[in-house]
Design a protein that fits this description.
This protein is mainly alpha-helical. The chain is 61% helix and 4% strand. The termini are far apart.
């Protein structure tokens, strides 16, 4: 009877070793599959990034180039006026533009959306050289 129990434990030990080897081999195979999958996903991600960046760059060029061409086609005088009103927040009255407003307490001179608001009573300024609503500071 001792042989029987000895053989039983040897068979069980062999079975345990075989199962352990099986799981070790499976773990190695799965690890290799995940490594290959990771390399493939990195390659795909890199290619997608390169393509997306190239497409975005091309799209922006297609979008911006016509705007630049239209802007460059404008007359130099028009460009200077646009630059004054689009990049400046406050415009002071001069001898050439809004001379009646110089020194007036009502003068506003702020630019909103590219439009100059001269004052509340005369939003676009007065045509004459003097203003009926002019008041000193």
């Amino acid at each position: 009877m001792e042989d029987w129990s000895k053989n039983f434990f040897e068979v069980m030990e062999t079975a345990v070793l075989e199962v352990e080897n099986f799981f070790n081999e499976m773990a190695e195979e799965i690890s290799e599959v995940f490594d290959e999958w990771g390399k493939l996903s990195e390659e795909i991600t890199e290619e997608i990034q390169i393509n997306i960046i190239a497409e975005i760059d091309e799209y922006l060029n297609d979008l911006i180039d016509p705007i630049i061409e239209v802007y460059l086609d404008f007359d130099v005088e028009t460009q200077e006026e646009d630059i004054d009103y689009y990049f400046v927040d406050h415009v002071e009255p001069t001898v050439e533009k809004h001379p009646a407003c110089r020194g007036c307490t009502h003068y506003h001179g702020q630019v909103y959306g590219g439009n100059l608001l001269v004052c509340g009573m005369h939003p676009y300024g007065v045509e004459d050289e003097s203003c009926p609503d002019w008041e000193s500071y």
